[in-house]
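fyi for ur records
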Amino acid sequence: MATMSESLRTRVGTLELKVPRTRDGGFSPSIFERYQRNEKALLASILEMYVSGVSTRKVSKIVEELCGKSVSKSFVSSLTELLDPMVTEWQNRSLSDTNYPYLMTDVLYIKIREDHRVLSKRCHIAIGINEDGNREIIGFMIQNEESDVAWATLFEVFKERGLQGIEFIISDVHKGLVSAIRKLAEMPSTFLKEYPYDSKACETLDDGFEDAFRYAVIGNGHHRLKSTNLLERLNQEIRRREKIIRIFPNRASANRLIGAVLMDFHDEWLSSTRKYIKFEH
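which gave:
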């Protein structure tokens, strides 16, 4: 029977396969399907290295050592695009199944190449503590600036996804954040839990936003909500991976890497058996 040679890269090296030729071209034995899964495992390993902060150059060298044949940096870069639909689906997932009494927000400054220039962009990130006391990454959004419009856009997206029941928002003093929260408080919605609106209290927030919220949560004994340390640690993990790239070639690549990193932490937090906060019922 006539055969044709096919090379297949796997995690244990490159295999030279002799595939029988049939008249209809439909020959596909079960053992070949198993080899295909090994190839997928190799691709998954490449993606895992990328998310862990290994540069595309180093990934190429590692694959060459494992398989005996090199892969180009452009191949590794194109492979990472497989993460895009997964990140997009995660970014748009529904949040309507539970309430999130506490929301932590922060902004990360990143550099993106755009229109032949290197521009500074803002990555808005939010963590939610749900009514069971578990932490989740609510989402993130890369925007051009940090302003009340940018924050309002972020909150509007969260609201459309079903985020509700917020009692406190914990954050550093970010430009436009208090103004965006005030606008939300004035609108009838389940996004923010309803409390009497006090203009004097809002002035206090403008003067000392972080201190005001620190005081607000002390009475509940949730010391973990007195700062944004949780988000700062998360930002450090993003920075550790992002500094290898330094300048993202485009917005899509920034969204891809940051989204993949946040997804990993989100899944890790969900699988934890320890509650981040124990509510008193």
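The CA atoms of residues 53 and 164 lie 34 Å apart. thats all i got for now
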